[in-house]
Amino acid sequence: MTTREEPPTAPFALVDQHCHGVARSPLTTRQFTAYLTESDSPAAPGTTFFDTQLGFALRRWCPPLLGLPAHCPPADYLARRAELGTAETLRLLLGATGITDFLVDTGLSDGLTTPEETAAAAGGRAHEIARLETLAERTADTAGTCRAFLRELPGAVREAARTAVGFKSVVAYRHGLDFDPARPAPEEVRRAADGWLATRKPGDRLHDPVLLRHLLWTAADTALPLQLHTGFGDPDLRLHRSDPLLLTDFVRAVAPTGCPLVLLHTYPYHRGAAYLAHAFPHVYTDVGLTLTHVGARAGAVLAETLELAPFGKLMFSTDAYGLPELYVTATRLYTHALTRLLDGWVREGAWTAGDARRVTEMISAGTAQRLYRLDPATG
Amino acid sequence: MTTREEPPTAPFALVDQHCHGVARSPLTTRQFTAYLTESDSPAAPGTTFFDTQLGFALRRWCPPLLGLPAHCPPADYLARRAELGTAETLRLLLGATGITDFLVDTGLSDGLTTPEETAAAAGGRAHEIARLETLAERTADTAGTCRAFLRELPGAVREAARTAVGFKSVVAYRHGLDFDPARPAPEEVRRAADGWLATRKPGDRLHDPVLLRHLLWTAADTALPLQLHTGFGDPDLRLHRSDPLLLTDFVRAVAPTGCPLVLLHTYPYHRGAAYLAHAFPHVYTDVGLTLTHVGARAGAVLAETLELAPFGKLMFSTDAYGLPELYVTATRLYTHALTRLLDGWVREGAWTAGDARRVTEMISAGTAQRLYRLDPATG
Amino acid sequence: MTTREEPPTAPFALVDQHCHGVARSPLTTRQFTAYLTESDSPAAPGTTFFDTQLGFALRRWCPPLLGLPAHCPPADYLARRAELGTAETLRLLLGATGITDFLVDTGLSDGLTTPEETAAAAGGRAHEIARLETLAERTADTAGTCRAFLRELPGAVREAARTAVGFKSVVAYRHGLDFDPARPAPEEVRRAADGWLATRKPGDRLHDPVLLRHLLWTAADTALPLQLHTGFGDPDLRLHRSDPLLLTDFVRAVAPTGCPLVLLHTYPYHRGAAYLAHAFPHVYTDVGLTLTHVGARAGAVLAETLELAPFGKLMFSTDAYGLPELYVTATRLYTHALTRLLDGWVREGAWTAGDARRVTEMISAGTAQRLYRLDPATG
């Protein structure tokens, strides 16, 4: 029913090391465009969220997958999407990504597809990334007392570690990355939990810096990879307090646990993140979310990341959330930008074609397969 | 009498949303070159301010407008300029910019052309941007007492708002952008004014952080656009304290007033400024001054800004000051760089030609016309 | 015996304004690869330090100088190197760099070639850069008492100034660049020296912030150029505390001494460093170490530096350390990137070919010859 103007999959396997579910229900135009921005407000007067690099990239890559010409007007695209329905749109878009493994952050789930549903639409496999703050908040919701909370939390983390392939923290949002790097003392944790639970209502978010650190250290003890939001995000954030370099002392302190740290997003501090991946064997980096938002500039940002980042320390992700379009846009931008960048270096004699292929495989899948202990996809 | 090797105007209308007057009198070589740098000292031994990206760009674009070959030696250019005289030079250079509207910061005016004179030389229209600190200093010069100063200041701001299309603050120079974001309490303002006026001599600059904040909040209450110097500038500045991200909490606090914030210059923090324009509907950004100084690199810096900035949130300006040459250089660099950048994206299929035209119009004129409520220029 | 696929020297003279000796003894593979990274740990599981921009650049430029094809496997290269022996490898590699003057930081010397040996291998001249912290530590090793230390230190600095062409400080490592900019009072220095020497064992490093400042000011008094490590380096460093902009107040304070400051490395803060070189006549900048590590991206980083840096304020260096390969890689990357960058600007009409030649000469040799008072090399 649709014409595809692109081959349906990337020319190489893709492990999406950080992503989210997509909306289960039909979306209004306003709901759709809200997923195109990190802003939590309507677009400024006289502007639309389609007039962004992400908006233009989406219009480039998605319409052909739904049988429309590239760059068609947003209204045509949204009409076509409504006509096809949510399930068919999901199938057509996700099926075109070539992602074999989805590492889904399950910290946000209301109204979203499950990891299994998301992966199934692409014929891929689902894996879970457990979000630490959500885990703590759920534990607090049910624990009742401070004592019960503190007793149950490590078990909840260990239990999550049995099924999840990694953890994620949004301490950047809840406090900033300029937190005290040291493992908090038990007495300090007890006092903080007392304070938090004394006034907490179910569903309240965790902002206490001592408990946030306690969570990070509890997760580190499992030695599963720990993903950290760094760099830009929604306006809850103070961006200059999300500079991954603020983690330097924590990076050092946590090294003896054997816990790998994965710096997510990182923009506009991606060069600093790449430095940490260069300087510390247990640090990895990622440009998910970033490539999606910078659109036509994806190659430039990828190139900056590939200045100091060892090639085996950068991993592909989409950070897609809410819209299957974001999976398509992220994978197309990444594939296109990386290919073009490395082809350029090969053409000028700086790299060999064989090295370019090896590095492409590392970033796209190999490093994530090793780090998260995934079985390589069987063709 | 002169040959123009370029069409006299940009291929699209230009609203210069932040600029200054130019020198009325003939300039010595040393006075001329002092306008080519943000430094307040003579050039280092063995160097000249012409050996910079700005110097090379000026030599590229200006000599042909005065009948000389592009890239002619500085001495030839300065001799020709002296021969033509200040008024004719002004007319030849400004007339070639294609700027239809000049939003002139009147905070610096000694020995400079008025907004009307500047605009007239280009056949354009003049608008005023009132500089807050200058306004406060003039009020202090005449008010005499603390009580009179505090009583007269809001009126002076409101009076300025009747004729100006926006305000500007140089709090980045006077304190840094890491100021307390909250509106200061009246008692706090009174104490600060007391302290300042007790020792102040006429002409003394305002550096008191409480009064600087009081000014910002007083301006915000008018809901006129408020321009803020951010990023690089002269050596008075501590550049790392001019990072626009330091304004994040002020951006949030001021939102309910309805006052749009315009981040000027922003380099090398232009990606962070673009993030604020992305995350907050009332934030706009600009790369005036920056494109002029980075010369052949204008396209690269513009491209970085267009990563996260929504296309309807970036505005053209020259920040030209002192020399009409800076108007020419800024407009040529901008026009050339933007055209080339967008043509590249169109050629590779990332953007359509129609979208490129729309975005060019937004950045060059449309957004400023809407934000500052200017009538569109009539052709 | 070897085929050279490249002309043996750069097409212009090169003064290497900051470098180190190379290993005198044969190296194991692990020792060799440790010099390819700023990390002090083994490579992460499944990765190798050859899979980096530096690794790929080395494989591009060095094998042909030892008679092997470009991009040959690392094992082949290391075998060939072992077969040739350390002295012959040194001669073949350094002889191909075209460096006429080596300004060698003698702060690290164990097992390394002397400045004279290093320069001799290339047919160049050796000059010394005296490392301040090493000088203070050696003085402390022999002085015995606090009184003797404080009495001998200024003499040791002045003595070094008789033979060295400049000083270097690693205060970025020992404390961070966010130090108090003021010259410490004598009493403050005495107390700090008392404290340090009371517990110090021979060989212990200097970390006391007062003594570090005292050293900087003592060196500034000689008016010799003072090189400062800024930006990235080994994991001892907190990168965000090595931002050269943190030096702004020190830059201002030290101006009256007439001491030029040279900001080394600077990445990823090279734009801020370029701003300081723009704003202050006594500040110079450098991208040694950086170009080496970013490999195929050398041109991009150089271009960013050449946005605000006046062309007479940027100097070439390799920061080569341990491996003669790093001299080759740094010079080839620099020569190649600069030529390509400037040729591009000439081709598009932004610069003239004559200006490009002049600027190349300034960055490559001229500015360093003037600043360090070197005789121009005689062809």
UniProtKB/TrEMBL annotation, chains A, B, C:
Pfam families membership: Amidohydro_2
Residue spans crossing the bilayer: none
Superkingdom assignment: Bacteria
Domain Amidohydrolase-related: from-to ranges: 185-374
InterPro entries referenced in this protein's UniProt entry, alphabetically: Amidohydro-rel, Metal_Hydrolase
Alphabetized Gene3D superfamilies for the sequence: Metal-dependent hydrolases
Gene Ontology MF annotations: hydrolase activity
Record protein name field: Amidohydrolase family protein
Biological source species: Streptomyces blastmyceticus
